[in-house]
Write a structure and sequence with these properties.
6 helices
């Protein structure tokens, strides 16, 4: 198994996880809209409530990428946690409003799977043996350094 195959498999897993995350966003949006209507929001406000909750989770996730400073990553993690708790409350609240334990449980399940998939995507790396073999091949084919001593 080589690094390019591992990266292709990672791309496939990321694509599948992205579909699951989009589904979770769709379900969460409908649950938050239900809660928003129950709280007395206008229909357009209730139907866009997910932007103020779930989009903040996505923004926080993007802020935790390795390209950012530790302070930015901490801020992103806090955003994810805060908005995630609000989203969880909305998803559970939707089931409670409908007097359905199953609906509340489904809201928890959707968010749990979404967070699990998001966590899994971030942990995918090629095996050490695969990357070590690729590094050895690169070193073997690398040109020797030209000496400036004459």
């Amino acid at each position: 198994m080589n690094v390019s195959l591992a990266l292709r498999i990672r791309g496939l897993v990321t694509a599948v996880a992205s579909v699951i995350l989009l589904y979770a966003l769709f379900v969460s949006a409908s649950h938050l809209a239900r809660v928003g209507l129950w709280l007395g929001l206008k229909p357009y406000e209730a139907n866009t409530l997910f932007v103020l909750v779930d989009a903040v989770v996505v923004t926080g996730k993007l802020m935790t990428l390795n390209v950012f400073a530790p302070t930015t990553k901490r801020c992103g993690k806090r955003l994810m946690i805060l908005a995630g708790v609000v989203s969880l409350a909305g998803n559970v609240g939707s089931g409670v409003i409908d007097h359905s334990i199953g609906g509340a449980g489904y809201g928890v399940l959707v968010l749990a799977v979404a967070f699990l998939m998001e966590h899994a995507i971030g942990k995918i790396r090629p095996a050490a043996a695969v990357t070590k073999a690729a590094n050895v091949r690169k070193q073997a084919t690398a040109r020797p350094a030209v000496s400036s001593v004459r």
